[in-house]
Each structure stands twice: as structure tokens, then as C-alpha cells.
Amino acid sequence: MEGGKLLIFSAPSGSGKTTIVQHLLKQPDLNLAFSVSATSRPRRGKEKNGEHYYFMSVSEFKKHIKNDDFLEWEEVYRDNFYGTLKSEVERLWEEGKNVIFDIDVAGGLRIKKKFPDLTLAVFVKPPSVDELKIRLKKRSTESEDKINMRIAKASVELATAPQFDRTIRNYDLDTALEEAHTLVAEFVNDSLKN
Fold first, then answer.
1. CB atoms within 10 A of CB 194
2. DSSP string computed for 148-176
3. 71 near 111, Cβ under 8 Å?
4. Which residue of 5, 54, 70, 182 could cross-link 98, Cys pair, CB 3.0 to 4.6 Å?
């Protein structure tokens, strides 16, 4: 398994990583394609299979684990599995693309460890844990208990920031978008010179 570059964006929920990744995907100079993750969690709102996630049952997900079909996977919450299918990355590489991930911290670091020279791992840091809670409540997609679980997890995730190649502080979205584009462009274009 080897092809284009891998761009990891990880952060606690509500940090703005998805907004940053969506912005980068619209930049033609970066030649990016989004890696759709697999999950066993139920769909939310208008999510579509194959576009937002590959939705599967817990037993189906466990079968893929047993078959070693994942580049990385994790049980994020009880019976809520998330993972990156090897076939997804291979498909995007075959299209000649650099692959961008909007992925949890543990998964991002696992991919970085497997492909250290091909991967740029970026941690998106929120202004504060309090701001995270406000952002998660504004989404109106989860219960108070789920939000509290995410906030508790955020403290642990914030401690992993030094393990990433770079950190973007998302205090101002326009500045964060510009910084992310510069980082990714330098990393992707560096491969063209080698």
C-alpha cells in the first residue's frame, strides 16, 4: 500500500476540523480526496452512506476487523466503532489523489505511525473547552449526556497535541483556514520536488 500523501486532521469534537477539511477539499491546487470512514454508529440527520460514512452494524464492523480490512480502527464509545478501510485509501490513491482524513486522535496517530514519511498529522486546537461545549450545544445533534462524554474525552485528546506534526489554533476561522492551506500545500508540493 503506497501512493499519494496522507493529510490527517484530528481534534476534539467541535474544534472546527471538519470545516477546515471541507475548505481544503475545495482547493484544486492540493489534489485532495476525502477518506470516508466506516462506523457502527447510527446515521444522524441527512447523513448518506458512502458520502459521510460507510455505515455498518457492529457485527459487520467486527467482521472487517477480523479480516484485517482496516488501516486503523477504534471503539470510540461502547459499540460505536470507527475505522479507515484499506480499500478506501487504495481507491483514492489509484485515482492519483492525496488523501485527507477528518479522524479522531488515536486513529490519526496510528496512520501516522504506519506511513511516517507520507503523512502530515495536524491537530486542530479549540480556543477552550468551554467554547467546545458551546459549539457542541449549537449543533443540536446530541443529548446533554453525549455532549458531556465528548467534553470529558476532549481533555484527554488535547493532551495528545504534541504528538502531531503541527498544531493549528482555531481561534479565528479565516486564519485557521489560511494556515491549514499553507501547511498542506507545502507538504504536498514538497513531494513533487523529490
1. 4
2. HHHHHHHHHHHTTGGGSSEEEETTSHHHH
3. yes
4. 5
Through-space distance between the first and last CA atoms of the chain, rounded to whole angstroms? 19
Lowest mean pLDDT, pick from 48-57, 89-98, 106-115, 134-143? 134-143
Do residues 107 and 73 touch, judged by C-beta distance below 8 A?
A: yes
Contact 158, 12 (CB under 8 A): yes
Question: Would you say residue 37 lies in a domain?
Answer: yes
In a domain, 95, yes or no: yes
Query: What is the domain extent for residue 43?
Result: 6-189
Give the separation between CA 30 and CA 184, rounded to whole angstroms: 7
What is the grid cell recorded at 2? 503506497
In a domain, 1, yes or no: no
Residue 104 lies in a domain: yes
**Digit-coded pLDDT (tens) for 96-128:** 999 999 998 889 999 999 999 999 999 999 877
pTM comes to 0.85
CATH of the domain at 153: 3.40.50.300
Sheet order of strands, 32-34 included: 32-34, 98-102, 6-10, 119-125, 166-169
Q: For residue 32, what is its C-alpha cell?
A: 485532495
